[in-house]
Design a protein that fits this description.
Oligomer: single chain
Shape: globular
Helix content: under 10%
Mean pLDDT: 93
Low-confidence stretches: none
Number of strands: 12
Number of helices: 2
Distance between the termini: 39 Å
Order of helices and strands: HEEEEEEEHEEEEE
Strand content: 25-35%
Structural class: mainly beta
Largest sheet: 6 strands, antiparallel
Radius of gyration: 17 Å
């Protein structure tokens, strides 16, 4: 069941859903608008002929900051990692869905490739997978509305929350755009 604005407000008041900072005007009928933070991870040119998922992604990206009043230009076909301005925390019986804003989707901006699902127990800033599928560059601004999160109630509280040591959760508590850590799935040699 998707939570309504009324239930979202109740869960926020009770401290079960955490969104910081939060402007009350960002609460929509069944979601909460989120904003783009300042830091963006840009894939740089590399001598690597391909991305090997068995190896660390160190050196594939470099951090850039979006100035206060100037845009970051996302070129056609470009893919970068961004982050939500908001810290988001979930209890043991809710999941969240990250979705784009319709107005941005209509100009070709996608905010996630596959990582639109947020597990119970998650705490941190969400990494955004930003892609420009249009034929023209798109401007991105610090603090712009970039997406929305909706919340769904589980049939029962989860037994193991995201971040539990036995789950090997890789991104709990992240504060800025975080590159892939898929190499950790292949054990110590990876």
């Amino acid at each position: 069941m998707v939570l309504s604005d009324r239930t979202i407000r109740e869960e926020l008041r009770r401290g079960r859903i955490v969104i910081r900072p939060l402007d009350e005007s960002c609460i929509q009928p069944a979601s909460v608008d989120i904003h783009l933070d300042r830091k963006v991870l840009v894939f740089r040119n590399t001598r690597r002929p391909f991305i090997d998922i068995h190896e660390s992604m160190d050196g594939l990206t470099e951090m850039q900051e979006i100035p206060e009043q100037e845009p970051f230009i996302l070129h056609p076909g470009e893919f970068v990692l961004g982050s939500t301005l908001e810290f988001i925390g979930l209890p043991d019986d809710l999941v969240a869905r990250l979705e784009g804003k319709s107005s941005l989707g209509r100009i070709g901006l996608l905010i996630h490739s596959t990582a639109g699902y947020v597990d119970p127990g998650w705490q941190g800033h969400l990494t955004l997978e930003l892609s420009n599928v249009s034929r023209l560059p798109i401007t991105l601004y610090y603090r712009m509305k970039i997406g929305q999160v909706s919340f769904l109630r589980l049939t029962a509280p989860a037994e193991r929350l995201y971040g539990a040591p036995e789950l090997g959760s890789k991104y709990q508590g992240q504060e800025e755009p975080t590159p892939s850590k898929v190499h950790r799935d292949f054990g110590p040699a990876g």
